[in-house]
Amino acid sequence: MASTFVNDLRLEEIGDGEQSTTWGQTTNTNLELIAEAFSFGTEAITTNADTHTTTIADGSTDPGRSIFLKYTGTLDSECTITIGPNTVSKLWFIENATSGSQNIAISQGSGANVTIANGQTKVVYSDGAGSGAAVVDALQDLSIPDLFIDDDLTVGDDVLLNSDGAIIKLGADADVTLTHVADTGITLASGTNATTLQVDSNLADENAGPKLILNRTTDSPADNDVGGQIEFKMENDNNEQLDFGKITTTALDVTDSTEDGQLTLETIAAGAAVSSVVVAGTTTTLNGNEADANASPKLILNRTTASAADNDIGGQIDFQMENDNDEQLVFGRIKTQATTVADGNEHGLLSLGAVLDGTITDTMEISGQGSAVCVVPAVNSSDGTDGIEFGNNSSTNSLSKNDILGANRMWRAINTQRVRIGNVANTEGSLAALEMMISGNGIIINNSSSTMNAIVFRTSGNGTDAGNISCDGSSTNFNDTSDYRLKENIVNLTGAINRVKALQTYRFNFKNNTSRTVDGFLAHEVASIVPEAVVGEKDAVDSNGNIKAQAIDRSKLVPVLTAALQEAIAKIEALETRVAALEA
Prior knowledge:
Elements: H1 23-36, E1 40-44, E2 51-55, E3 68-72, E4 79-84, E5 91-96, E6 104-107, E7 114-116, E8 121-126, E9 135-137, E10 167-170, E11 176-181, E12 185-190, E13 225-235, E14 241-253, E15 260-269, E16 272-280, E17 283-286, E18 312-322, E19 328-340, E20 347-356, E21 359-369, E22 372-377, H2 401-405, H3 410-416, E23 418-421, E24 434-437, E25 452-458, E26 465-471, E27 476-480, H4 496-502, E28 506-510, E29 513-520, H5 523-527, E30 534-535, E31 551-552, H6 558-583
Parallel strand pairs: 1-3, 2-4, 3-5, 4-6
Antiparallel strand pairs: 5-8, 6-7, 8-9, 10-11, 11-12, 13-14, 14-15, 15-16, 16-17, 18-19, 19-20, 20-21, 21-22, 23-24, 25-26, 26-27, 28-29, 30-31
């Protein structure tokens, strides 16, 4: 009977009565091939080949017989390697040591195959089922009581730790542990307070970074479901575990396309949990539960530096929006500044800014000067951007907190009536700097001294008064400036009687008060006789078609009336002299 090679190592099986004089040599060869089956073998793949065949030679040495088989060569795509004969059932350690970063796929027949990534080694076996033979990953569902790994471990699929108390120990001294807590989760622990869970990323993409994702999946989501929670636990002095901090997300609305979420930052105060910061959509709420009337939620922007200097910026809040060119701009800003950092003499400045013509500008500044509080305009212009000043930089005689916030003062007045400062909100078209909608006293000025100028009028850039309203405690004077030092080209007023005779006087009522008849003039007629007494133009209207009424300052008629009376007295006295002469 002739020899056969049908075994899994392709050894020569001598037939009965064969090789009577050489069977020893054949047996030695088979022993060598058995030893080869436990050895290391290397086989090169043709450059850039998409397929390759490894056939275990019959009765002679062959790298395909080795239990550890290393494939080399250069590839530009995945290569499928078929191991034959397809009747061989055998175990291999196969290493993909090719160049080109390509996978190799180990196959035997039309059955399953095993893919080995570049640089990796897998333990596989063939079932030797002929044309339908398959190659199987031998470590699939491998059960190992204890596993010691001295270097890296890469897992391409699931890792299952069946014990409720399973522990993964890390470090040369196993000083860091990852422990499964039954029905709860996992605990990261170490023997020191330096326990750290760090997520690193080395991507160059500026839009990518390390992520920690808490993902809740459910078949029946409902409004107000908690999506994830991070708790910061500590012990009190009674050895009780408490949440000293917590981050929670909640699905307020789970309706498709109208989903709403909420993020809550929770802390503990006086032994009770408080949702200190709640972010819901575009609304952020700061909460506090302190019983102390002087305590309230705080948002602190704290800048620390070893080299503090005057005019350092302490903190800034920007309010950004897009313009119609999809550009992000700062439309509003709150900013603090340390104008003086000298110990014991610190001064601060709070600025409110808004965008104007594309540029952010500080429009109001609030500063503390001693015990005074100053609110001054940051921009001086004629377009209504001037601000308000409470107090001044050189005096402590300024409005206190109680003056501004107390009963029947500015706070009450603003909230019960209406006060507008600046011309932006004025709907009357008169460019008023101050508009008050009132039902009682508009402005009350209390005088603590015997005489005071309640209101002083000055022109911009001129330190000289143009007039004032003064009060001496019992009467009020409306005063025009009349100092001789401010006047020139002084001449006597003549022809006053003729001007007075030209003035037409009337009785009439105003259209908005038909029940009251008054004496007076028509402004446009007076304008041609005493022009300085009239303000405005005849028949003028604003851009909205509203009447821009002419007005008369009757005090400006007094000099003309006085001159006319003097002229009349002179005539009377002359007539009296003539009459006396005639009677004599």
